[in-house]
Amino acid sequence: MTASAQGVQTTSAKSSASHPERVFNFSAGPATMPESVLREVQDEMLCYPGAGASIMEISHRDKLFVDVLHDAESTIRELLKISDDYSVMFMQGGATLQFSAIPANLLRGSGKRAQYIQTGSWGKKAVKEAKKEGDVDLLYDAAESNYDHVPSASDLACPDDAAYMYYCSNETIQGVQFQSEPNCPDSVPLVSDASSDFLCRPLPIEKYGLLYACAQKNAGPAGVSVVIMRKDLLEKADPNIPGYLHFKNHHDNDSEWNTPPTFAIYVLGKVARWLRDDMGGLEKMESINREKSQQLYSVIDSSNGFYRGHAQTDCRSLMNVTFNLPSDDLTAKFISEAGEHKLAALKGHRSVGGIRASIYNAMPREGVNALASFMNDFASKNS
Amino acid sequence: MTASAQGVQTTSAKSSASHPERVFNFSAGPATMPESVLREVQDEMLCYPGAGASIMEISHRDKLFVDVLHDAESTIRELLKISDDYSVMFMQGGATLQFSAIPANLLRGSGKRAQYIQTGSWGKKAVKEAKKEGDVDLLYDAAESNYDHVPSASDLACPDDAAYMYYCSNETIQGVQFQSEPNCPDSVPLVSDASSDFLCRPLPIEKYGLLYACAQKNAGPAGVSVVIMRKDLLEKADPNIPGYLHFKNHHDNDSEWNTPPTFAIYVLGKVARWLRDDMGGLEKMESINREKSQQLYSVIDSSNGFYRGHAQTDCRSLMNVTFNLPSDDLTAKFISEAGEHKLAALKGHRSVGGIRASIYNAMPREGVNALASFMNDFASKNS
Q1: pLDDT tens, position by position, A141-193
Q2: What is the per-residue pLDDT across A19-48, written as a single tens digit (0 to 9) for each?
Q3: Complex ipTM, two decimals?
Q4: Which helix (H) or strand (E) holds B232?
Q5: Do A129 and A104 meet the contact criterion of CB atoms below 8 Å apart?
Q6: How far is CA B354 from the centre of its chain?
Q7: What one-character-per-residue DSSP string does A360-381 give?
Q8: Domain B24-33+281-382, classified CATH 3.40.50.150, yes or no
Q9: Annotated catalytic residue: which of B148, B217, B248, B274?
């Protein structure tokens, strides 16, 4: 990240004047966070209120930290309207650990087959790990079109006796997103990797068996994942799977089976509160996310083919706007000149190329405005 | 943690005046950290130099973060004089994940038996997980004396063909520490859980096959573990073990097989630098740790039996000083009155009871002085 310094504004009502060196950071993850949250963390760094120490320095069993953890959980429950039928757990190891934990808990020894929908890079990785734990079918694979779309409901025929049906709701690299849950038989738990669109919109949690997200895209720093799991599924696992992978250990001990990543949970809780209190909750956040993403997609669509979106239009992501320019030289020039306008971390993933603008909840409208202006200007100068 | 506020001093030459609300924090982990490190983290919270963003907000692939990771690794290599025969990896999941990862990599499918030395609570947990992965022998078990000692070399007879020999160098809960490595045949990899005494003294790394530590006791915040592994052992694992547990994935990708816990690694690196630059390295740190712990053990030994140390004298820990008082009432009174003197988090673990004073590297001498004075005073008033 090399963009130069100018004052920026955040969307947070609480934030004071922005730090003069901060840029608009379009990183796909770890990603931009609400500046007001960073300021709170900064203020409390040496002394968390009442602790006489940093939140990093106190025991995870200290009531002050236990309250932080419970508050993070209850704020997430409130945002997503999660009922008591579901456990909400905090774990380490990112989405990658979940790629193994999910089949270890729900597939190994079940005598059933798991059904995977593969719509991008993260789904592919999940399939690879699942195959180590049991029988896996590819219910859908979008590889032939270079993962530029998600299936329509009619493309899916999940058997009634599947161990579970798995999909990734938003593929960060490709910038494709399911607009709603794929059809899944009532008898089959629906499992979602929501890492890169968690908390970007309301979700009907009751449709899911398990939904998880690493925090570092839309919900906090790297090092913590949120796992939302229907409680009846907790009982399914063979107790001989590796202990850290066993969801029931985490559920039964309120995410303190072992020392949790205390600082990451503390920041995650602050981001959730910011979303509820400053942004007004998930309905409002979705509306803002639609406006922000539409602004960039409009620039793409009105560029007379100068910008070419990677995702098909009906499954464009609210979070990751992916597009290509006419040549690699122009792509490099775009990234370089964007940096001079304090627009940072726009390079696309090597497997897709081009540009990826990640505009998670914490990306302020001003950042999207600035990028849209820059894109229009760049296209008119270089067409 | 409820102790009240007064000015304190850290041992760091760099630190400015201490925050007035900070207490002396004897938590066993997460634990006290160098105040100068917390101040640096605070200063950089909104903008890591050159990033235009917090270190939490930038990609783990960004050169700025990759440099942070490499610097943390090289500082640890320098402190412990680790040769290129060893990999140094950063992982998530704490020691608990290692309890499974180690036997998954080195025992599963090996046709061998693993030999475990059980000298406290953490060793017991490790044994439980290892048994899920293969055949385990208890080479030594100190349960009968309530884990108040470690074996002498003559108590151990590890077979030459063991998969590995495992021990926990410092049992945090019981406060017992190996004074040097247990005898281990050359043909057998020695594996150590050094979570609670990592970086407290120099170590002959060449004696180890694998040594690991979660950071949150002596090396940083919760959420990252350091794994030091002889490179030839990386090749031993069945590739079908869960990917996150497979050390080779982490080694081959320079601890970026998946998104690492970036903020935790950043803080860990700062703690390592503090240890090298401000404290003068591990020889000096060990000398200070010996002085600090001896000061408290002297109070115990000269208290005419008022304080009774848990650990036998020849295996007392430099890090966790555990002792009992004549009654539970006096223990409660001790903890309460200590809190009034800004001496916090002294309650012993429920399995041992009494008091535990964890005096990791970052506990300043002033904190130990204050605790020793308080102990003498409390004993004279209550004997």
Answers
A1: 999 888 999 998 778 999 999 999 999 999 999 999 999 999 999 999 999 99
A2: 889 999 999 999 999 999 999 999 999 999
A3: 0.95
A4: none
A5: no
A6: 21
A7: -TTS-HHHHHHHHHHHHHHHHH
A8: no
A9: B217
For residue A5, the model assigns a pLDDT of 35
Per-residue pLDDT of A265-280, as tens digits, reads 999 999 999 999 999 9
Helical residues (DSSP H) of A183-317, grouped into ranges: 247-252, 262-273, 282-301
pLDDT, average across residues A299-324: 97
**B38 with A52: Cβ contact below 8 A:** no
CATH no. for A55-277: 3.40.640.10
Distance CA B348, CA B171 (A): 13
Q: Is B134 on the interface with A (CB under 8 A)?
A: no
User: Distance between CA A31 and CA B28 in Å, rounded?
Assistant: 32
CB neighbour class for B15 (10 Å; exposed up to 12, middle 13-18, buried from 19): buried
A267 touches chain B (CB under 8 A): yes
Q: Where are the domains of chain B?
A: 24-33+281-382, 55-277
pLDDT tens, B306-336? 999 999 999 999 999 999 999 999 999 999 9
Q: ω before B30 within 30° of 0 (cis)?
A: yes
User: For chain B, how many helices (H) and strands (E)?
Assistant: 9, 14
- Distance separating alpha carbons of residues A258 and B298, to the nearest angstrom: 33
Contact assessment for residue A43 and residue B41, using Cβ atoms and an 8 Å cutoff: no
- Please give the residue of chain A at the shortest CA–CA distance from B242: A100
What tokens does A301 get?
Answer: 């669509």
Q: What is the pLDDT of residues A40-79, one digit of tens each?
A: 999 999 999 999 999 999 999 999 999 999 999 999 999 9
Which region holds residue A120: left if phi is over 0, alpha if psi is between -120 and 50, else beta?
A: left
b (16+ CB within 10 A) / e for A247-274: bbbbbeebbbbbbbbbbbbbbbbbbbbb
> Binding-site residues of B for pyridoxal 5'-phosphate, please?
95-96, 122, 172, 193, 216, 258-259
Q: Does B40 touch chain A (CB under 8 A)?
A: no
Work out the widest C-alpha separation in chain B, in whole angstroms.
Answer: 63
Please indicate if any CB of chain A lies within 8 Å of the CB of B253: no
Q: B17: part of which helix (H) or strand (E)? A: none
Terminus-to-terminus CA distance in chain A, angstroms? 27
d(CA A347, CA A333): 11
Partner residue opposite A27 with nearest CB, options B28, B57, B258:
B57
Contact criterion met (CB < 8 Å) for B58 and A25: yes
Annotated binding residues of B for L-glutamate: 61
Chain B residue closest in CA terms to A130: B242
* B259 contacts chain A (CB < 8 A): yes
Best CA proximity match to A1, nearest among A296, A320, A340, A293 = A340
In CATH, the architecture of A24-35+280-382 is Alpha-Beta Complex (3.90)
In this prediction, what percent of chain A has a pLDDT beyond 90? 91
E-only strand ranges, A215-364: 225-230, 308-309, 320-324, 343-344, 355-358
Q: Which amino acid is at A47?
A: C
Helix ranges restricted to H, B239-364: 247-252, 262-273, 282-301, 328-340
Q: What are the catalytic residues of A?
A: 122, 193, 217
Q: Which residue of chain B comes nearest to A95, CA vs CA?
A: B258
